[in-house]
């Protein structure tokens, strides 16, 4: 049993282009993937509570759309700046028990949010949530890869779907609990954070046993599949695609409830239900991207998921309520399949630097989401949310740059 587990882990850290013929029947560590995905769900559910609380916070503190965007910018910027540094550090010195500390930081942010007396404290709460994410995501992504049994896209999709599911259920929980019972009811979600800490303690124990103690801690002699210049160019293209995806998603999700309330006259709770439809569709789409990429390659999935959403994005600002809901579900399904494929593609471009690559891409995604929310919030104050939706509809056309990615070097 120990031998097969070690083989599976070694396969997870060996670049596809340099790997010897690995055992065909290496199995993913499903219990570990399930635990890390569940912890991701809890982590991102608590983050999404901030997003779902925007209408409440706007009324409580008389916020402008620019200030709403600043909340998103704060928690996503703290995460984006720290994640690559955390990933780079843990590539060299793995920290198996850092994950529970990340969840504890998110718990502190949640408690501050529940009892925040001012907008400044709301921003501080958002910063603690961002710090928690900066610790959680790079190491968790590494663990998902180590537990993949060589099925890297599948493992990243399982990990990501937990986060997307948590993001999706946040608005439902906000509608059911926070809207009727007020801001202080957020404190009850601290119980979920405590559960997350317990789960992550178990994952950390597995990680310490199978990664550090088994000797995977030492860096493998990683061979990049392409020349340095090609790798740098490909990483730049992938970052442009991340910008396109997350700037668009920031505008769509941060102001979606306000858009529905303003344009169609929906109640706050009804608007949050529609936000759930979009976010749940994103979770479902995430499941598909990784396994499909394992079968047909990452590049076709990246190409189809970002550029493929452009026609629906362009139609969205002109649709009625029924078609707005339908189009956002399609957009969520298609667009969300990109990230797992992008992340695994980048990890294979830079083998041996899983933590740094994961931190860079999670961090850049968070940063673009935060910057997008802040910039588009100011834009909405100056113009209107409807005008913002018409403007961002062109962003998915940047998916054309996926044509510049080098052809993948497939196994066997």
UniProtKB/TrEMBL annotation:
- UniProt keywords, alphabetically: Membrane, Transmembrane, Transmembrane helix
Does the entry feature the keyword Oxidoreductase, yes or no? Answer: no
Span list, region Disordered: 1-24
Looking up PROSITE patterns in the UniProt record yields: MFS
Q: Which InterPro entries match?
A: MFS, MFS_dom, MFS_trans_sf
Which sequence ranges are marked TM in the entry? 110-136, 157-181, 187-208, 229-251, 271-289, 301-319, 325-345, 357-380, 386-405
Q: Kindly list the GO molecular function terms attached to this UniProt entry.
A: transmembrane transporter activity
Cross-referenced CDD domains, in alphabetical order?
A: MFS_FsR (cd17478)
Q: Where is the Major facilitator superfamily (MFS) profile domain?
A: 32-411
Q: Tell me the protein's name.
A: MFS transporter
Per the UniProt record, the source organism is: Roseateles aquatilis
